[in-house]
Specification:
single chain, 13 helices
């Protein structure tokens, strides 16, 4: 029996239509228009680095001198004593750097210059001192009499070491002039260089003391690491202070040679008095009656300079407040330590914890005040460019803080 199936074309086809893939779907309507992507936010401008960095070629010289110093310590002390001396020397260095950080916290110096300053003191200044000592020994022969030791400690060491350290401060002044605004900056750079020098010098002293056993090592660490970790810091800060005063007056590199020499003379005198108290006089008597008062005076001087920076910041930011960029309450907040702490505490209460934005606002506003000061005094032809960049950054950070 047969069945008439009729015309096959009148029946539905069991073959799927030809789609590009098994996941493709038929198009029944026009697709929605895809909107244009929003423009990416403009990159935050950054102040130009020129005038804020030390020359790269000096870093190459430091590397060469560092290799020579490592060879010297390995030969003179041995690997074990060098390693132990370095570990012990890191303890006072850490304390000194933390103290300098507190002084520098108001308007932090560029990180590359901080590293350069410590490296110059730890490498170049020590290399200069050792090189001069070697040349004198070569020219004059062995100098091991008591008189020679006194001359070396009280005359040669202060002059040569303060010149080597002071040269580093002067290099920063000459090559990174736009990051050298005044006395506080000079003190910071001088302190960092002095800290680096003391670190390398302590490696040698601590390493040599190991030969005398734990008792001698403990005494040496107490004398150098506890009683006098800030000695070199204070000496070289005098040189930095003198150059900082020159920077505040807008003195150029050539005109700063005189203040630089005067500063080094002051540093050398303090250094000579310190060494003389150890080899000639009553160390403990001079330490209590001279060194401690000098150190206290040094601290009080730094505090006074910091207050002057605060007043200057308030005055310059007040000018922006008068123009409507900030409120006067914000200028007061940015210009005092208590105000900054209150601002950071308030930022922590905002949605998402905006502490990082407040820190950026504080840093950029402080740098803005310093740039305006440089522009007003006319000592920095590019200060107006910095002023525009930092004003943009500060107002952007302010807007982000108040964003919903």
């Amino acid at each position: 029996m047969t069945h008439d199936l009729g015309d096959d074309r009148s029946r539905p086809s069991l073959t799927p239509p030809a789609f590009p893939s098994v996941l493709a779907q038929p198009r029944h309507a026009a697709p929605a228009v895809i909107p244009a992507a929003p423009r990416s936010p403009a990159a935050m401008p950054v102040p130009p680095r020129r005038g804020r960095t030390a020359p790269v070629w000096i870093a190459g010289i430091l590397v060469v001198v560092m290799v020579a110093l490592i060879g010297y310590f390995l030969a003179a002390l041995g690997p074990g004593a060098s390693l132990v001396g370095m570990v012990l020397a890191l303890i006072p260095l850490t304390g000194v750097l933390l103290a300098v950080r507190i002084v520098d916290r108001w308007e932090p110096e560029p990180r590359n210059l901080v590293i350069f300053a410590v490296a110059w003191g730890a490498i170049a200044a020590v290399g200069i001192a050792l090189g001069v000592d070697w040349l004198l020994s070569f020219a004059l022969g062995a100098r091991d009499t008591p008189a020679d030791e006194v001359i070396s400690a009280v005359i040669q060491a202060p002059i040569v070491e303060e010149f080597g350290k002071g040269l580093g401060v002067f290099i920063i002044f000459a090559t990174a002039r736009r990051a050298f605004d005044g006395p506080v900056d000079g003190i910071v750079y001088g302190a960092l260089i002095g800290a680096g020098f003391a670190f390398t010098e302590n490696i040698q002293y601590f390493g040599l003391s190991l030969d005398g056993g734990p008792a001698e090592t403990t005494i040496t660490f107490f004398m150098r690491g506890i009683l006098s970790p800030f000695a070199h810091v204070m000496f070289t800060s005098v040189t930095g202070f003198a150059l900082g005063l020159a920077a505040r007056r807008g003195v150029r590199t050539g005109g700063a040679i005189g203040p630089w020499i005067v500063g080094m003379i002051g540093a050398t005198v303090l250094h000579a008095i310190w060494n003389a108290s150890a080899v000639l006089g009553d160390f403990w008597g001079l330490y209590l009656t001279l060194q401690v008062p000098l150190f206290v005076g040094f601290i009080l001087g730094v505090i006074a300079l910091r207050r002057e920076e605060s007043r200057l910041t308030r005055r310059r930011l007040g000018e922006y407040a008068d123009a409507g960029w900030f409120t006067h309450q914000e200028a007061d907040m940015l210009a005092t330590g208590a105000g900054r702490r209150a601002g950071l505490a308030w930022a922590r209460t905002l949605r998402g914890d905006r502490t990082h934005l407040m820190k950026g606002f504080i840093a950029d506003a402080t740098a803005l005040a310093a740039a305006r000061q440089r522009a007003i005094t006319g000592r920095d032809p590019k200060a107006a460019e910095d002023e525009g960049v930092l004003l943009h950054r500060a107002t952007a950070a302010r807007a982000a803080l108040f964003a919903p």
